[in-house]
Amino acid sequence: MLTMRYSVSTVRTIHSVLNGAIHAAVEDEILIRNKISKINLPQFKSKRHEVSEEDILNESEIANLLNYVKENESETHFTLILLLASTGMRKGEAMALRWNDVDFPNEIISIKRTRDHLGERSTKTDNSERTIDVSTSLLKHLKKYKIWAAQKKLINGAKLNEDDHILINASTTGPIARMFPNQLMERVFEKGVIKRVTPHALRHTYASLLIAKGIPVQQWRNSLEIP
């Protein structure tokens, strides 16, 4: 049984991707019917953890989101979305990132902290503290963003330190506000760029796109801290 090896979230995400692919095959008359659409899936203990196809963006929607934010929002807005979409980390983990968490030579990011309504603190569990392999393109952007952040700090009479938060407010150069990610996603929705989803949808999207590309679960479950 999959539920003996993977979390409920993983099983439901895999099912969502496969269900969508098979449904498309039925629509194109490649298959006669979708035999997995009515499978009884394991349930979450809490409804707030439930994941549906509406919580996942496709590649086209992700591209639209990134392009719009890059062209119409600030450097920090784009960096936030790029981080979430490229790594599957939680928004709280992204907001708590500091420059010394990024290992540019080895192309990894260390997740050590999170940030929520209780403030900044260590991650929820031992599994939450982890390292994530990141792409060369993401690191290339982070290098450019670091220069931008250093310039903003300098304008405000400060110097960028390795212990500084990565995601900063362009005006104050302090850490971004806690509701910053949600407000950004809502603003993008209101512009008609994508459907209404929360920043957490990018985490599910990251997993679903990897599954769709045939990348084995074992290769990406650690980066998402999936048991």
Radius of gyration: 19 Å
Low-confidence spans: pLDDT under 50, at least 5 residues?
223-227
Separation, N- and C-terminal Cα atoms: 15 Å
CATH C-level class of the largest domain is Mainly Alpha
Largest sheet: 3 strands, antiparallel
Topology, number of strands: 5
Strand share of the residues? 5-15%
Walk me through what this model shows.
Helix content is 44%, strand content 8%. By secondary structure, the chain is mainly α. The protein has two domains: 1-46, no CATH class; 59-213, Intergrase catalytic core (hpI Integrase, Chain A), CATH 1.10.443.10. The protein has a three-stranded antiparallel β-sheet, with no helix packed on it. The protein has a two-stranded antiparallel sheet with strand order 3-4. The radius of gyration is 19 Å and the shape is elongated. This is Tyr recombinase domain-containing protein.
Key features?
227 residues, mainly alpha, 2 domains, three-stranded antiparallel beta sheet, 5 strands, Integrase_recombinase_N, Tyrosine_recombinase_XerCD
Give the helix/strand layout.
Elements: H1 8-27, H2 59-72, H3 75-87, H4 91-95, E1 102-103, E2 108-111, E3 113-116, E4 119-122, E5 130-133, H5 136-155, H6 180-190, H7 201-212, H8 217-220
Antiparallel strand pairs: 1-2, 2-5, 3-4
Helix pairs in contact: 1-7, 2-3, 3-5, 3-7
Keywords: DNA recombination, DNA-binding
InterPro entries: DNA_brk_join_enz, Integrase-like_cat_sf, Integrase_catalytic, Integrase_recombinase_N, Tyrosine_recombinase_XerCD
Family: Belongs to the 'phage' integrase family.
